[in-house]
Amino acid sequence: MAATRVNQIAVSDKLCKGCYLCIWACPWNVLEISEERNWRGVKKPVATKIENCRACRLCEYYCPDFAIQVIVDEEEEKEILEVEERYEKPWLRRIERRNEIVSRGVWWLES
Ligand code: SF4
Ligand code: SF4
Questions:
Q1: With b meaning 16 or more CB within 10 Å and e meaning fewer, what string describes 30-44?
Q2: Cα angle vertex 94, ends 111, 46, to 5°?
Q3: Inside any domain, residue 109
């Protein structure tokens, strides 16, 4: 049986908290800590050796935050982008709302 070709390993900018369980779980040393930081200030994992990936999805199973996705074909990529589009807008609204509340100061101490 031919090995599954993996197109991409996507790590969510918003969900990844940098616990690196995915790196620990990968038996093929596909992932490493990148220099790129997400909005949480966390250095995200990145697939530096994607050619070694066997699409076993252990990284997905171990991620406690559903932040990593192994994308094996265009169909799956399209599906994931659609889901992100659906969930990203309410998510960003929540972040904006939180920032707005925080920018007003420590109101619960002032009142
Ligand atoms: S396991 Fe999930 S949250 Fe932890 S570093 Fe990997 S992608 Fe990020
Ligand atoms: S799918 Fe398997 S081989 Fe590929 S990065 Fe995840 S844990 Fe590693």
A1: bbeeeeeebeeebbb
A2: 130
A3: no
* Cα–Cα distance for residue pair 44/9, rounded to 1 Å: 12
**Residues with Cβ within 6 A of ligand 1?**
11, 16-22, 45, 62-63, 65, 67-68
Q: What's the CA gap between 77 and 82, in Å, rounded?
A: 9
Q: What is the pLDDT of residues 41-79, one digit of tens each?
A: 899 999 999 999 988 889 999 999 989 988 887 777 777
Domain total for the chain? 1
Q: How far apart are CA 105 and CA 107, in angstroms?
A: 5
CA distance 80 to 71: 9
Q: Where residue 61 sits, what CATH number does that domain have?
A: 3.30.70.20
User: Domain range for residue 71?
Assistant: 8-104
For ligand 1, atom 1, which residue shows the shortest CA distance?
Answer: 63
Residue 67 falls within a domain, yes or no?
Answer: yes
pTM of structure: 0.72
